[in-house]
Amino acid sequence: MRFFQSLRARGLDVPAPLPLQGGRSNRVWQCGDLVIKLYLPAGHTPLFANDPALEASALSALAGTGMVPVLRASGLFEGQSWLAYGHITGAPWQRDTAHVARLLGRLHDQPAFSGVPKGVNGSAALERQTLAILAQCRLQTADVAQIRALRPFGQVPPLQQLALIHGDPVPGNLLAHDGTLTLIDWQCPQLGDPSEDLALFLSPAMQYLYRGAPLSKPEQEGFLAAYPDPRMVGRYLALKPWFHWRMAAYCLWRSQHGEPRDRVALSLERAALDQSIIPKRA
């Protein structure tokens, strides 16, 4: 393959590329002690960005923390960006939600790096993003109208003190190894609301798609109890209906773009939304 020939010409050791599973946006291979990622032009979605420059910046900024793999190289091949980082022998996260909570707490205490964009912040911004996702659905079906009608009540103001967040801390992006966890796939870091990361990890849709099943109630409670900042846990709980509403819209969008499993994910997220909404008083 000409791509790997070009990497070898740059002096990278890329023997016998082995395709890796798990990514939903780009092509990824293990090549000896390297992971090679080739970014696809269509990798961006209405909820998750796919920015190779941001990923390289994040790996550089967080080098030495143990939270990210080691960046080795990056570049362009025929107009497409690629990135190489050190391979970590491990497995996608499966258990111990408290460990994830502590990792995210450490991340949210890290200084932001130059160029990181601001994330969605507060219920009004979440509403705008959700409606934008629904507007991008190819088929304006009854499902779209039903989800639009499930808009939560009340308002939660924007957070004033923002933090560095991963933006996609799902089980497939958490590698368990040697008794620790490393976050990979840094295509959409943000200067944003830490409760965003909490919501994405706890999302029943994301847990189903990457781990096969939503978290149990004790797993959810253990995660929230272990997160270092109780104030942010309270903020997540206030925004919880809005996060479920947005994720339901995203799952519907995915299901209209050739992802049949997202119909199951949609049903899980809608059920969680129903449970989280406080009925409006008459």
Describe this structure in words.
- The protein is of the alpha+beta class.
- It has two domains: 89 residues, Phosphorylase Kinase, domain 1, CATH 3.30.200; 185 residues, Aminoglycoside 3'-phosphotransferase, Chain: A, domain 2, CATH 3.90.1200.
- Helix content is 42%, strand content 15%.
- The protein contains ten helices and ten strands.
- A five-stranded antiparallel β-sheet has the order 1-2-3-5-4, covered by helices on one side.
- The protein starts with a helix and ends in a 6-residue tail after the last helix.
Task: Explain the layout of strands and helices.
Elements: H1 2-9, E1 18-19, E2 27-31, E3 34-38, H2 52-61, E4 71-77, E5 80-86, E6 91-92, H3 97-107, H4 123-135, H5 142-149, E7 163-165, E8 174-177, E9 180-183, E10 190-192, H6 194-202, H7 204-211, H8 217-226, H9 230-255, H10 261-276
Antiparallel strand pairs: 1-2, 2-3, 3-5, 4-5, 6-8, 7-10, 8-9
